[in-house]
Amino acid sequence: MEKQVYLIRHGIAIDRALSEEDATRPLTEKGRKKNEKVAKKLKDIGINFDIILTSPLLRATQTADILEKEGLTKTLETFSPLAPNGNIEDWLNWWEENAPETVALVGHEPNLGNWSELLIWGEIKGKLVVKKAGIIGLNCPQDLSPFGNSELFLLTSPKWLLSQ
C-alpha cells in the first residue's frame, strides 16, 4: 500500500529587500491569485488531502490557507520542520505516527526538492526544483522506509498545470 505526499512550494512573495524579516514576507497579489488558480485546478481534477502541513513562514501559511479555503482539506497544521533548513527526519517521525493517506507539505526551496530527492533516490542530487506554486507528487511505501523507495508521479510548474 502506498500513500501520497504532495510537496507544494509557496507562491510568489514580496522581494526580500522590501521586508525586514524573511519570516514575515507575504505573498504578492500575483502570487495569491496564482495560488488560487492552482488550488482551484487541484480541486477540479479531484485532488484532496487528509491534512496539509505548512511551514510557519507567512508566505507558506498564506499558500496553505488558500488550499484549505478551496476545500482541498479539512485539516491544516503549522509544522516547524517545513521552515527553511528544516529536518526531514522530524517529518518522517510525524508521518509514521499519523499515517495519512494523502498529505500536502507546503514549504520552501531547496528543502522541498532535497526532501523529494531523499525520498526517491535516498540522497540529495540537487536536480529537482519546485517552482513557486509548483508541486511534486510522490507515492511513498507504507510498509518500509520511504527514503530511496518512493516514486515520483508528478512534477509540475503552475504554468503547466494551469494550461491543462
From TrEMBL:
Pfam families, per the entry: His_Phos_1
SUPFAM superfamilies for the chain: Phosphoglycerate mutase-like (SSF53254)
The protein's name in its UniProt record: Phosphohistidine phosphatase SixA
Listed InterPro entries: His_Pase_superF_clade-1, His_PPase_superfam, SixA
Gene Ontology CC entries for this record: cytoplasm
Positions bound to substrate: R59
Domain of life: Bacteria
